[in-house]
């Protein structure tokens, strides 16, 4: 790993004012801006040099905000589909797979592209950073951060809904540097975020930052870097299921960097994004071309989340309308948003496994179903270069190789109406 020059050279840019500034440790937003926005990272290396596979995700280090290298990463893998493409009548379908599929060289132990976030975010933390990182998640993100932080001895506090704790499985026990708290059963991802925000007000804890963290977005952007460097060009259309939309924002940002690189084309791929019916607030807003999400009744939203199979697609406060967020990404790429039913996603998962030979997660099944819809409705042409972002898969394959899995249990179940003083007493007592 000595071939990598660290820290990576980059600076931050405001999408509101255009001002640029150095990244002072853990910047998630610019102070004194007239409007809130996401920050963008600008790397000194305009052209991407891809390292070999032994570097894992850090093969894309030129466009990652790194201060150190962590052990155990794997990069997304892109390949040209034959069987699924034939079923859908497509000539240029490329699948970018993030998960566990040794036959394809995909070795993500948590079976999710959330590892791309975790290995980038945690590598943005300097080795001298001793505060506890706080992450809220509906499941896959928590599993990935827990694995990465445990393996690399990085203090981590997770906040995960009780109803999705079955997602916190691991092939080996975790280091005690990882702690889990949960809101009571019946609460959702929004409630887990609320608890994490409270914890971040305590001394010794720092927020991971979600979409505001450039490392999270740039880590997720490696899916598009994998596709473009494999295909040799920017895809025409990009398919992904979204909960927060952060991965799609990252895809758009990667597209812009690839245009600036000059070797992969000068066009913007159409973002074709999907949510799981009946929970589809961003679909509704985008269909109306509204920058603001429509008001949602809390109880109705929770009921809708309980009905969807792809629980990770259940963010009620996504970075949709913020400057540089999903609305802007869709607008700039002439994008589209659709919803997919549980039944359509289940059938898509079966078809994918039958044709491609690997199981996929429910969110990836939603994306696949949206591609099936688009192909069936002639929304895409047979000659277009299509990237299908399979954001998680191979879990059944992974479990075949393991005798027994270990599940992380919460140290505390905390009511969402807890006061900050009460919460501090609970957290310090862990």
Descriptive account of the structure:
- With 430 residues, the protein is α/β, with parallel strands linked by helices.
- It has a domain at 77-111 and 216-399: Rossmann fold (3-Layer(aba) Sandwich), CATH 3.40.50.1100.
- The protein contains 14 helices and 18 strands.
- It has helices spanning 83-88, 114-124, 140-152, 189-199, 214-220, 222-231, 246-261, 281-287, 298-307, 326-332, 342-356, 362-376, 395-400, 420-429, and strands spanning 10-14, 20-21, 39-43, 77-80, 93-97, 100-101, 106-107, 132-136, 156-159, 169-170, 178-182, 205-207, 237-241, 270-276, 336-340, 386-390, 406-407, 412-413.
- A 6-stranded mixed β-sheet has the order 4-5-16-13-14-15, with helices on both faces. It has a 5-stranded parallel β-sheet with strand order 12-8-9-11-18, with helices on both faces. A 3-stranded antiparallel β-sheet has the order 2-1-3, with no helix packed on it.
- Strand 1 (10-14) and strand 2 (20-21) form a beta hairpin.
- Helix 2 (114-124) packs across helix 3 (140-152) and helix 2 (114-124) crosses helix 5 (214-220).
- The longest helix has 16 residues, at 246-261.
- It is globular.
- The two termini are 37 Å apart.
- The model has no long low-confidence stretch (mean pLDDT 95).
Number of continuous helical runs: 14
State the separation between the terminal residues, measured CA to CA: 37 Å
Question: Structural class of the secondary elements?
Answer: alpha/beta
Unreliable stretches covering 5 or more consecutive residues: none
CATH topology of one domain: Rossmann fold
Look at the structure and give the CATH class of one domain.
Alpha Beta
CATH architecture of one domain: 3-Layer(aba) Sandwich
DSSP, total strands? 18
Relative helix content: 25-40%
- The overall average pLDDT, rounded, is 95
Strand order of the largest sheet: 4-5-16-13-14-15
């Amino acid at each position: 790993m000595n071939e990598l020059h660290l820290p990576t050279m980059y600076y931050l840019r405001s999408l509101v004012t255009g001002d640029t500034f150095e990244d002072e440790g853990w910047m998630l937003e610019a102070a004194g801006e007239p409007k809130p926005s996401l920050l963008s990272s600008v790397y000194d290396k305009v052209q991407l040099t891809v390292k070999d596979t032994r570097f894992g995700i850090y093969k894309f280090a030129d466009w990652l905000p790194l201060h150190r290298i962590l052990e155990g990463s794997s990069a997304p893998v892109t390949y040209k589909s034959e069987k699924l493409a034939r079923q859908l009548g497509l000539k240029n379908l490329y699948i970018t797979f993030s998960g566990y599929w040794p036959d394809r060289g995909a070795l993500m132990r948590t079976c999710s592209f959330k590892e791309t976030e975790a290995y980038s975010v945690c590598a943005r933390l300097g080795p001298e950073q001793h505060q506890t990182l706080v992450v809220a998640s509906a499941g896959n993100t928590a599993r990935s951060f827990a694995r990465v932080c445990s393996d690399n001895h990085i203090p981590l506090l997770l906040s995960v809904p009780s109803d999705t704790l079955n997602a916190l499985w691991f092939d080996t026990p975790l280091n005690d540097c990882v702690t889990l708290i949960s809101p009571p059963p019946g609460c959702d991802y929004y409630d887990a975020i609320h608890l994490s925000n409270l914890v971040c007000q305590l001394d010794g804890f720092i927020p991971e930052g979600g979409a505001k963290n450039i490392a999270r977005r740039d880590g997720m952007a490696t899916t598009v870097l994998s596709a473009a460097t494999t295909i040799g060009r920017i895809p025409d259309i990009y398919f992904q299921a979204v909960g927060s939309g952060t991965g799609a924002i990252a895809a758009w940002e990667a597209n812009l960097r690839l245009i600036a690189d000059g070797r992969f084309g000068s066009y913007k791929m159409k973002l074709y994004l999907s949510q799981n019916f009946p929970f589809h607030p961003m679909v509704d807003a985008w269909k109306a071309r509204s920058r603001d999400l429509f008001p949602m009744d809390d109880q109705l939203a929770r009921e809708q989340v309980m009905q969807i199979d792809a629980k990770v697609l259940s963010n009620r406060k996504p970075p949709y309308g913020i400057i540089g967020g999903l609305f802007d990404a869709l607008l700039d790429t002439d994008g589209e948003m659709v919803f997919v039913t549980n039944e359509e996603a289940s059938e898509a998962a079966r078809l994918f496994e039958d044709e491609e030979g690997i199981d996929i997660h429910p969110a990836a099944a939603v994306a696949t179903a949206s591609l099936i819809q688009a192909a069936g409705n002639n929304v895409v042409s047979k000659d277009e270069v299509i990237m299908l972002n399979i954001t998680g898969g191979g879990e059944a394959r992974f479990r075949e190789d393991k005798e027994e899995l270990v599940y992380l249990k919460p140290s505390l179940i905390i009511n969402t109406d807890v006061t900050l003083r009460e919460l501090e007493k609970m957290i310090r007592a862990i």
